[in-house]
Amino acid sequence: MRPSRVLHKLRNGETAICTKLNLADSRIAEIASLAGFDCVWTDMEHVPNDLSVVERIVLATKAYGVDSLIRVPRGSYSDLIRPLEMDATAIMVPHVMSLADAKAIVRHTKFHPVGLRPLDGGNADGAFGNLDFQEYLRRANEDRFVVLQIEDPEPLEELDAIAALEGVDMLFFGPGDFSQAIGAPGQMDHPRIRETRERIAEACAKHGKLAGTVGDAASLPELNRMGYRFVSIGADVVGLSNYYKQLLGAANRPAFEGRDASYGY
Asked: Would the pLDDT of 260 be above 80?
């Protein structure tokens, strides 16, 4: 089983940088991997990606030694484990609301002795049956990670217990939905958002868990100071939108007139 690039960096005190994909084309995952990101995050919660799309993205990132993080839909246990069986490096479970919720996720995503994840071993993560069975169980628990997204006020009541739970590898603060839940949609500088961001990082540090969130290049030093070593920056749709706007902005300037129309392509 291939090692996790993210876990290797985080366990050595380094920062791992991720980026998010909304588009389904695995070639975008290749481009992000070639750019040097440690992890590519693709989505099944908000984006109409099916499992075949996810599998292609996992394969694309594997070719470059880059981790794949799949945000899964909330549903049955199969929704949690199928990306892992495709050999995704990690899954992210959105809107974890309580300690009981966290315990159920661990039960379904970690093998014995931590949980009771349903067994197969004949898929990509088990080298299609070519990995020693006991090694498969051990490596799946150690070299794959489960991310619980904290993006609502409700789980804060049990935050310390959630962070202490064996089998939880990372807590990931989602400020967008949290801002809406506290009645301040989009107000990323709201005091409760900063307070909660710091509180989650502190709980992770206390219990030896990884802390993740979204950010950008400008906020990265401050996030690192808080304890966030896994940070997702940017998204494919944002990058493409900005690129096309810049192209049109340049095309509409008078200086563009008379230049070769193929310039820059």
From this structure: no
pLDDT at position 257 is 52
Condensed to tens digits (0 to 9), the pLDDT of residues 80-107 reads 999 999 999 999 999 999 999 999 999 9
The values of phi and psi at residue 169, to 5°, are -95, -35
pTM tops 0.90: yes
88-91's contacts with Cβ under 8 Å and 24+ in sequence apart are: 88/54, 88/58, 88/144, 89/4, 89/5, 89/6, 89/39, 89/143, 89/144, 89/145, 90/4, 90/6, 90/39, 90/144, 90/145, 90/146, 90/147, 90/169, 90/170, 91/146, 91/147
Token pair for 145: 């990670």
Q: In this predicted structure, what is the pLDDT of residue 264?
A: 41
- 36-40 long-range contacts (CB < 8 A, ≥24 apart) are 37/66, 38/5, 38/6, 38/9, 38/66, 38/67, 39/5, 39/6, 39/66, 39/67, 39/68, 39/69, 39/89, 39/90, 39/230, 39/232, 40/66, 40/67, 40/68, 40/69
Q: Tokens for 140? A: 């799946």
What lies within 8 Å, CB to CB, of 73 at 6+ separation is 44, 45, 79
By three-state DSSP, how is residue 67 classified?
Answer: strand
Distance, in Å, from the CA atom of 212 to the CA atom of 151, rounded to the nearest integer, reads 12
Residue matched to tokens 């985080």: 10
Q: Average pLDDT, stretch 243-263?
A: 71
